[in-house]
Amino acid sequence: WAHWGYKAKIFYLERGLALDLFKDRFSIIPVKDYPLLVSLTEAFFYNCLGRFDESLVKLVFMFFYLSLLAYFYSLTKDIFGRYISALFTFFLATVPLVAEFGVGYYLGYADLVFTYFNFVSVTSLWLWILQKKKEFFYISSLFVGFALWTKLEGLVLFAANLICLVTAKFFFQKDKRAFLKIILNYAFFPVLVAISWYYTVFSSRASSVHFSAQSLPFSFGLIINRFLKLSNRFFQESLTFSRWNIFWVLLIMLPLIYFKRITNKNNAPVLLNLILQLFLYTVVIIIDIDFNTVLFNSLSRLMMHLIPLVILVILNNVFENKTAILARENKSKK
Questions:
Q1: Most CB atoms closer than 10 Å: which of 112, 140, 220, 320?
Q2: pTM value?
C-alpha cells in the first residue's frame, strides 16, 4: 500500500504530479514506474478532505469493491436471473482474498481497482460482440485505458482484448477497411494512455528492472523448469480453499463436465480472454528477471485479478443463460 499512498501524499503536498521527482534516480519515490491513477485518486480525496487521513482514504477502495459487486450483479441479473445473480455476487464478495483487498488487511492496494477495470472491460467487449451496441465497445476501450493507468498488468489485458477483438471480427468482417477502423478506434485511448505514461517512465529512466536481455531464459531447459514450477505453484494456489473457496478448482473441472457448453460460441469470448490472460501472465512470469519473487509474492494477486471472470465462466457453463437469445435477437434485427 505504501507505494500508492506515499505518492499520493507527495502529490497532495506538491499540489501536482511533481514529475521532477520521477527523474531523480535517488529520489524518495518508491517504484517510480507504477502507474498513477490510484495515487492521484487518493491525492484528490485528500484535497477534497483538506487534510491527510489514511483511514478515511481507504473508503476509495471500499467504493471500488462495492462497484465491482454492483456491476457483477447488474450484469449477471440480466443473463441468469435475480436469484442466481444475487447468490453468486455473494460468493464473489466472500471469496477470502477478494474480501481481504476490499475491506480487510490488503485494503489500500491497487489490485482490487485493477480487478474492477479488468472485469468491466472484458465483459463490455463480450456484450459488444454479442449485441453490437457501440456503448459497450467504447466502455471496454475506456476501461482498458483505466487499467493501464492503474497497474502494469494493464498491458496484458490490452493484449488479450485486442486478440479477442481480432478473432471475433476478422473472420466475420467482410470489409477489411472497416475491420481496421474497429481495431484503431478500440486501441486509440489505451495506446494514448500507455504512450503518455511509458514515455515519461523511460525518458526519465524511472523504470523498475523486470526484464533484461542477459537474464531472459533462452535455455529451453530453463524455460521448461520455470514452467513446471509455475504450474505446480498455480495448482497449489488453486487448491487453497482458504483464499479462493472452490472456484479455481471448478474452472479446471469445467472441460470435463460441460464440454459442449464450454465450446458455445456465445460464451467463447469471455473464456478466450481468460485463457489469453493466463497464458500472457505465464509468459511474463517465466521471463521475469526475479522469477522466484514473482512466483511466491505476486501469483495470488494476479489470480485475484481474474476471479470475477472465473466465476462468470462457471456461471455461463453451469446455468442456462440468455446470451444465445441476445445474439439471436441481434441477428434478427439485421
A1: 112
A2: 0.88
